Amino acid sequence: MEHIIWNIDPLMVSFMGLKIHWYGVLFAVAIASGYQVMKRIYVREGLDVDSLDNLLIYCAIGIVVGARLAHVVFYDPSYYFSHPLKILAIWEGGLASHGGGLGAIVALYYYRRQVQLPFLYLLDRLAIATAIFGFFVRMGNFANSEILGVPSDKPWAIIFQRIDMLPRHPAQLYEGFTYLGIFITLWLIYRFTEMKQKQGAIFGLFLVLVFSARFAIELIKEKQAEYAHDWAISTGQMLSVPFLLVGIALLAIPYLKRR
Questions:
Q1: How high does pLDDT run on average in the chain?
Q2: How many Cβ atoms from other residues are within 10 Å of residue 256's Cβ?
Q3: Separation between Cα atoms, residue 208 and residue 9, nearest integer Å
Q4: pLDDT tens, 28-62?
Q5: What is the DSSP string of 96-136?
Q6: What angle is formed at CA 102 by the lines to CA 98 and CA 107, rounded to 5 degrees?
């Protein structure tokens, strides 16, 4: 059976020593798209749009630092602890989304002290922006031929020629388009329902949807952490469980309080 062969060069442009990678471009698009979603929300709710510049800076730093540290600690600790300077080499790849999420939450905590808005109120709105952010990041992973799925004979399987000649599940696309669907769902809920009045509910729903999907998609991903190859669950699934439990609690609490 014929399969799509994916062999795009991760390097988008190289000019006079300047190298621009597809992943970097798509990561920048991810940040810009999330910023535009937050800007639209701020305009709708009459909030200070100028303060979003600080949120953008804090979140960009929090996401990168958090994602890098999580990758170092949970996915390849033996290598990085043996080569500590490599921890700084983020251009070589290695960002874990769970850590990026925690980094964004910490960044938002510092931001809310400036704008004097409730923390859960901000988390609800940032969750919508984070979903579209995740879509573009996974497209960057696809461009890089990384976060591979397991071999498959499905007609939509893709051969990542830079890695090997095995047709595989395009796990990056599964995850990316799931995040896009979650973004659309959360945006419609925000616009047309009263859930946004229940602080923490939208963020809770975001966590439940994202990490349920992440847990399921991990079943058809190659395990990324060497030490977890013999485990029943992957590192990504293990890290998803706490987020999922917090999401269930945040989603349920506002309705239990009402009763």
A1: 90
A2: 8
A3: 35
A4: 999 999 999 999 999 999 999 999 999 999 998 99
A5: -HHHHHHHHHHHHHHHHHHHT--HHHHHHHHHHHHHHHHHH
A6: 145
Instruction: Tell me if 172 sits within 8 A of 213, measured CB to CB.
Output: no
The order of strands in the sheet holding 158-160 is 4-6, 158-160, 167-168
Listed range (42-51, 82-91, 157-166, 225-234) with the worst mean pLDDT: 225-234
Amino acid of residue 74: F
Please, which pLDDT band fits residue 151 given cuts at 50, 70 and 90?
very high
The overall pTM is greater than 0.85:
yes
Q: Under a CB-based contact definition with an 8 Å cutoff, are residues 115 and 51 in contact?
A: yes
Nearest by Cα to 211 from 250, 188, 183, 237 = 237
3-state secondary structure of 13: strand
Structure tokens belonging to residue 236: 């990504």
CB 126 within 8 A of CB 108: yes
Cβ–Cβ < 8 Å for 129, 35: yes
